[in-house]
């Protein structure tokens, strides 16, 4: 492995999306606006759920967790990107790089487990509605949420630890937008097959297992919906799951394709675009999807806006 000065580098250089200065300024403005929309949109969703007692249900409890995860995930990556868009020197210390890898990888894992938990919630709501409040009680919801956070964090801690024990020698250029695990592993000057196996195993545990649970839940849900005789009943059952199903399709698709076979992974550019999708687009889309496709959330927004409008009218008079 060499001596210590061969094993450790003092800083990494993130190559980012583009080396063109004008493009970097454009991307800075674009990503800053999208980050602000992400923070504001998810904050408003959480606030709406807190203020409206009709949304104090398991589904919206998990949605609150999902919003917190989205904002945290975006925050673990985007501020560093924004700084590097304007900075001439795009270095990042190994400790900060490890922290970024830990938080982004951990929050990604938490989100996948949360989506599986939300699929189970929708399964109970559609397939066993009379016992929904009994099955999805507060204690179970809390335990499921804690399991999501703990499992993602533990996996991330293990992956970050074994990744940063690799000797990097003189390799310091990370061809990515952040300290992403595959990009960092590629810097190692030793055989990384064991790390790739660890990535595949964690992908199976935290990606494929939740995905299979989601798939099984929706097979049961669709089967139940098809047995409903009335068109109105089928539409109501479908709308119960539409928002979550949309997020699931978007969230799982590209990640399965990218991470399940890291040794034969797609191009570096595609990896960057996938990271941009999850760090920037998904946190923006989630509040929009749950707001625009969910009648309860739209009704809560209308009620809140009506109350604010009435309050404004009173203050004006």
From TrEMBL:
Domain (G-protein coupled receptors family 1 profile) ranges: 41-290
Origin: domain of life: Eukaryota
Family annotation (InterPro entries): GPCR_Rhodpsn, GPCR_Rhodpsn_7TM, Olfact_rcpt
Subcellular location per the Swiss-Prot or TrEMBL entry: Cell membrane
Annotated membrane topology: Multi-pass membrane protein
Pfam families hit by this protein: 7tm_4
Transferase recorded as keyword: no
CDD domains membership: 7tmA_OR2F-like
Classification via PROSITE patterns: G_PROTEIN_RECEP_F1_1, G_PROTEIN_RECEP_F1_2
UniProt keyword Plastid, yes or no: no
Role of this protein: Putative odorant or sperm cell receptor.
Family note: Belongs to the G-protein coupled receptor 1 family.
Name of the featured protein: Olfactory receptor
Organism annotation: Vicugna pacos
Gene name of this polypeptide: LOC140697524
């Amino acid at each position: 492995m060499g001596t210590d000065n061969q094993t450790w580098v003092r800083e990494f250089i993130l190559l980012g999306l583009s080396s063109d200065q004008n493009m970097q300024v454009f991307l800075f403005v674009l990503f800053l606006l999208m980050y602000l929309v992400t923070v504001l949109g998810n904050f408003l969703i959480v606030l709406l759920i807190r203020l409206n007692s009709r949304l104090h249900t398991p589904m919206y409890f998990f949605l609150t967790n999902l919003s917190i995860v989205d904002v945290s995930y975006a925050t673990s990556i985007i501020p560093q990107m924004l700084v590097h868009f304007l900075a001439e020197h795009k270095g990042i210390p190994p400790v900060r790089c490890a922290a970024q890898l830990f938080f982004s990888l951990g929050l990604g894992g938490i989100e996948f487990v949360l989506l599986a938990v939300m699929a189970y919630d929708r399964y109970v709501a559609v397939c066993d509605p009379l016992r929904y409040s009994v099955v999805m009680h507060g204690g179970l919801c809390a335990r499921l949420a804690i399991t999501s956070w703990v499992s993602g964090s533990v996996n991330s801690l293990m992956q970050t630890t074994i990744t940063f024990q690799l000797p990097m020698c003189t390799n310091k250029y990370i061809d990515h937008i952040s300290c992403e695990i595959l990009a960092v592993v590629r810097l190692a000057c030793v055989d990384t097959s064991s790390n790739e196996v660890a990535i595949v195993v964690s992908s199976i545990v935290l990606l494929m297992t939740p995905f299979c649970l989601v798939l099984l839940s929706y097979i049961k849900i669709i089967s139940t919906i098809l047995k409903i005789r009335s068109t109105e009943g089928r539409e109501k059952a479908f709308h119960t799951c539409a928002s979550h199903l949309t997020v699931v399709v978007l969230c799982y698709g590209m990640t399965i394709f990218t991470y399940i076979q890291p040794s034969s992974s797609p191009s570096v550019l595609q990896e960057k675009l996938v990271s941009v999708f999850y760090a920037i687009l998904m946190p923006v889309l989630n509040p929009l999807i749950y707001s625009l496709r969910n009648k309860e959330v739209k009704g809560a927004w209308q009620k809140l806006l009506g109350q604010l409008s009435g309050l404004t009218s009173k203050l004006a008079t």
